Amino acid sequence: MKRKIHIVGNWKMNQSISSIKTFFTEFNENCSKYNNCNMWIAPQFIHIPYLQEVTKGKGVVKIGAQNCSHVNSGAFTGDVSASSLKDLGVDFVIIGHSERRAFFQEKNEILNTKTINALNANLKVIFCVGETLEEREADKTKSVIKAQIDQGLANIPKNKIKDVIIAYEPVWAIGTGKTASPEQAQEVHLFIRQHIASTLKWNKDDVIILYGGSVKPSNIDELLDCEDIDGALVGGASLVASDFDKLCAVGNRH
Ligand code: PGA
């Protein structure tokens, strides 16, 4: 069964008001043609209102955040709550990106709290999992991902399961130019799908699983050809309007 393709741009700590303006001047021309593909972008928090403004009326690009707090309010200087994101009209939040795990020491337990908070605030969640090169070489890929899923996605309210998207992002493929081969990616995607069915009891055919890690116009086609890959979470290539456009055009065809 083919699920609707999602192409999600993770802009990380990049872009400026002027580069965003240029991006949408180019991208807005084509994007309304891609009805078959969900196009989402997560800019820096501070750029969210500007993206909402420049995409207004196009109705096709959804805007998200790259992180949110594990609590809803209080003395947490510098944090941004899921409810305040929802208040701003944000659609989704990325949780557990490997850069959050590595640079901000975010562990599965806190990522679970963030996920539940975000879902209760009526945001969709893209929950990221993935192994490091060391873990892959030690043949620990599946056990690492299993723990990330079992702990990070524990106790999700039943009525919120439909709002969770999983992103498989092998850490060794992020920003390195090394993409997992379609076979490597498909193997892990299938494992994730089977695992969430057997452990979490989610309906495996409904779960959207994105691949991330050096996705670009030249490799997206073969990745999306895989049965269990339902889209891509894209860093570098999503910053350039013409590349993002190509990714969405391919997504739209699948
Ligand atoms: P990349 O980043 O496409 O630049 O490898 C992907 C990500 O970190 O989500």
List the helices and strands and how they pair.
Elements: E1 5-10, H1 17-31, E2 37-42, H2 48-55, E3 61-65, H3 82-87, E4 92-95, H4 98-103, H5 108-120, E5 124-129, H6 133-137, H7 141-152, E6 164-168, H8 182-200, E7 208-212, H9 220-224, E8 231-234, H10 241-253
Parallel strand pairs: 1-2, 1-8, 2-3, 3-4, 4-5, 5-6, 6-7, 7-8
Helix pairs in contact: 1-2, 1-10, 5-7, 7-8
The structure holds 2-phosphoglycolic acid.
Task: Please provide a written account of the structure.
The chain has ten helices and eight strands. By secondary structure, it is α/β, with parallel strands linked by helices. An eight-stranded parallel β-barrel has the order 1-2-3-4-5-6-7-8, surrounded by five helices. It is globular. It binds 2-phosphoglycolic acid.
Our measurement of the CA-to-CA distance between the termini, rounded to an integer number of angstroms, reads 12 Å
| Strand element count | 8
Sequence of strands across the biggest β-sheet: 1-2-3-4-5-6-7-8
* Order of helix and strand elements from N to C terminus: EHEHEHEHHEHHEHEHEH
Which outline best applies? globular
Descriptive keywords:
alpha/beta; globular; binds 2-phosphoglycolic acid; 10 helices; 254 residues; 8-stranded parallel beta barrel
Brief synopsis:
This protein has 254 residues and is α/β, with parallel strands linked by helices. It has helices spanning 17-31, 48-55, 82-87, 98-103, 108-120, 133-137, 141-152, 182-200, 220-224, 241-253, and strands at residues 5-10, 37-42, 61-65, 92-95, 124-129, 164-168, 208-212, 231-234.
